[in-house]
Structure formats: structure tokens, C-alpha cells
């Protein structure tokens, strides 16, 4: 078993929400729990989650690779995902992405040399009117991200090591 006992207990709670013949419905929650514990979703994690839920590994792999909230490669301690979907792109999403790339010295799908930040491109985050929008560590939505707000967020993370 790859995950902690606590993680499997959390997965059990998710599985219990569904009828026995629909355990695959807990895949997304199980992957989130595993990623929170391991930092990313490796091939071994996919196989382990599949075995635990009793579904074919391909069923878990399909979910892990379809949604951009799952990292199938190691990422930095802080993952910044910026929406560049059309509505956000029209409201400075691409310009903001370019600013973050320049600020961190990395491109999309890259991690800073110190392992602190990874930059990802995301699809619609459901807050088009608040663009530019980004997600920090797949959990904290940041809206109306001006250069000043980005600078402050990055400095706070560097200073405190905590999400802004």
C-alpha cells in the first residue's frame, strides 16, 4: 500500500457515498487525496488507487490525465495555474501568464530551479468576469491578478512558504 492509513480511510468515506456497483465514481476524490499526500499522481499511485477502488488502472489513468488539477509529473511546492481560455485571454489572461513567466523565469509546465514554483496553463475556472484568474495549488482561486498582486503573492510565498 502506497498511501497512509489516514488517506485510505478518507478514500473509504468517498467510496461509501456510492452504490457498490458505482465505486468508480470515487476516482476523482481518491486521486485528490492521493495527490494531497504524495504531491503528484505517479503511475504507482494510479495503480494503487485502481486496486483499492477495484477498477482497471486505465479508468484511473483516464481521469488523472483528463483533468488539469492532477499532476502526473512532479511539481514545485507551489503550483500556479493561470486561465488562458478565451474569455480570460481577452481580459489579460495571456498577458498575465507572460508576466508570471518573466517573473519566475520559467515557461508553462516548468518548475523553478529551487523547486518552489511550477507554472501551468488551465482551462476555464468559472470566474471569467474576474480575470485574470489563477489557482494556487489547485485549491486557492486568485482573481483580478494585476502585476502588483502577483508580485505580492509571490513575495509572500517566498517569505512565508505558505499559500497566499
Task: Give the helices and strands as they follow along the chain.
Answer: HHHHEHHEEEEH
Task: Please provide the count of β strands.
Answer: 5
How would you state the average pLDDT, rounded?
Answer: 93
Helix content: 40-55%
Strand fraction equals 5-15%
Radius of gyration: 17 Å
Low-confidence stretches: none
* Main beta sheet strand tally, sense and closure: 5 strands, mixed
Question: Helices and strands: which structural class?
Answer: alpha+beta
The count of helical stretches stands at 7
Shape: elongated
Provide structural commentary.
By secondary structure, the protein is an alpha+beta fold. About 45% of the residues lie in helices and about 10% in strands. The protein has helices at about 5-15, 25-40, 45-55, 55-65, 85-90, 95-105, 145-160; strands at about 80-85, 110, 115-120, 135, 140. A hairpin with a 3-residue loop joins β4 (about 135) and β5 (about 140).
